[in-house]
Design brief:
Strand content: 5-15%
Bound molecules: alpha-D-psicofuranose, manganese (II) ion
Number of strands: 11
Number of helices: 16
Oligomer: single chain
Order of helices and strands: HHHEHEHEEHEEHEEHEHEHEHHHHHH
Largest sheet: 6 strands, parallel
Length: 426
């Protein structure tokens, strides 16, 4: 199903007056404080976040999985779902595919569908954390790090195949996340596992087209519980540096041990020109994959403060690949993704309000109180009217969640796809 302009006009009608009042009030206040509201609106409109193909169905845990009905069961249907999100929010203009869950059957048809919905193909993800049907080798004891050359070769070839698939669709990046590690002390030789991984990544890197990036994702634990080969940003950065200038570190917010200072990690990677991509989600305990901003919105804001600073001051760092990486166990995935997109835009908008010159001056004066006041002045501003305006300017919904519900989209999806469809993914 496609959302028509008339649908959105109808959904926006009752909200328009209140939106105008709220926007005018905020815009006047911000302008009086020296902000360029037009510029902020343009930045918000430009900030597009990729939707992971595997987040459009119900996520499960090892204890069970509860369907939402009407889930997309083909790649085309997944792209249609991203199209719905993009029509409503105007900020979800890309999809990130995971191979082999999303191998296209008809490349031209898939490309045409995506382009008709204004959707681009973001980074493609390889999967060497699951064994594939009829595969010669098993990844039970690792993939790129495995002690067996045959296993490593199979995993390298898979990554090259993923690049090839992404290339045909117009993707420009490969994201490698390895589950490799060990569950028990003594199971692995750390140095051998790291060296094998490095050599394997270098082989993959050789197959990377000139205008591509390789994004190396890290994660401290799970599915391995004693050690993970690429456990943190240091390991990822070392590997990226070994591979070459097209290789970067990818930060997934859920891939840190509790209380890690993620904003500092992000900041230093940008200084070194090595931050390549971002997976947004939120967590309380570990890699919980919860809705962005649902648990630690202030931490998200502080991360965006560093990202905005980096985007302004670190030309050595390339444009980032922004993506949500979440799982939806109890909410409708599309509603959850709308909430995440909104939280990302909100944190970004607030970070854009930080008076960077005043902050620099206060830092130079060691005026600690002033520094905190400057950050919190921005954080406490209710920026939602700016988000609404940015969406409205591009033909989106003032309230995407409300429009999604009023248009009864989940029931439309159930009517066309049936109840018991299951999306590929985790
Ligand atoms: C691993 O937890 C991860 O964050 C990686 O990005 C994977 O590609 C994705 O989730 C799906 O498993
Ligand atoms: Mn991730």
């Amino acid at each position: 199903m496609k959302i028509e302009a008339q649908h959105l006009e109808d959904a926006n009608k009752n909200l328009l007056d209140a939106h105008k009042d709220n926007f005018d009030y905020l815009a006047t206040k911000l302008t009086n404080n020296g902000h360029n509201v037009e510029k902020i609106l343009n930045k918000l409109a430009e900030f597009q976040v990729a939707i992971p193909s595997w987040a459009l169905g119900a996520g499960g845990t090892r204890f069970g999985r509860f369907s939402f009905y009407g889930e997309p069961s083909t790649l085309e249907q997944k792209i249609e779902d991203v199209g719905l999100l993009h029509s409503l929010t105007q900020t979800a203009g890309a999809v990130s595919l995971h191979i082999p869950w999303d191998v296209p059957e008809d490349y031209n048809a898939v490309k045409e569908l995506a382009s008709s919905l204004d959707i681009k193909f973001d980074a493609v993800n390889s999967n060497t954390f699951q064994d594939q049907k009829d595969a010669a080798e098993t990844y039970k004891y690792g993939s790129l790090s495995n002690t067996s050359q045959a296993v490593r070769e199979q995993a390298i070839q898979h990554n090259l195949d993923v690049i090839n698939i992404g290339n045909k669709l117009g993707s420009k990046a490969l994201t490698v996340w390895l589950a490799d590690g060990s569950c028990f002390p003594g199971q692995n030789n750390f140095q051998t596992a790291f060296q094998n991984t490095q050599d394997s990544l270098k082989d993959i890197y050789k197959g990377l087209p000139d205008d591509w990036k390789m994004l190396v994702e890290y994660k401290p634990y799970e599915p391995n519980f004693y050690s993970t080969v690429i456990q943190d940003w240091g390991a990822s950065l070392m590997l990226a540096n070994e591979c070459g200038e097209k290789a970067y570190t990818l930060v997934d917010l859920g891939h840190h041990l509790p209380n890690s200072n993620i904003e500092q990690i992000v900041s230093i990677l940008q200084l070194k020109g090595k931050l390549g991509g971002f997976h947004f989600n939120d967590s309380k305990y570990g890699d919980d994959d919860l809705t962005v901003g649902s648990i630690k919105p202030y931490a998200l804001f502080l991360i965006f403060n560093e990202l905005v600073y980096g985007m302004e001051n670190n030309p050595q760092n390339p444009d980032l690949a922004w993506m949500i990486d979440a799982s939806h166990n109890v909410k409708d995935p599309l509603e959850d993704l709308i909430q995440s997109l909104e939280a990302i835009q909100e944190a970004y908008a607030k970070a854009l309000l930080i008076d960077q010159d005043a902050l620099k001056a206060a830092q130079l004066n060691n005026d600690v109180v002033k520094c905190q006041e400057i950050l919190q002045e921005a954080y406490r501003t209710d920026v939602r009217p700016l988000l609404e305006k940015a969406r409205l300017n591009r033909g989106g919904a003032i309230s995407p969640i409300k429009a999604y519900r009023e248009l009864d989209l989940r029931n439309h999806l159930i009517d066309t796809r049936g109840k018991h469809t299951i999306a590929t993914g985790l």
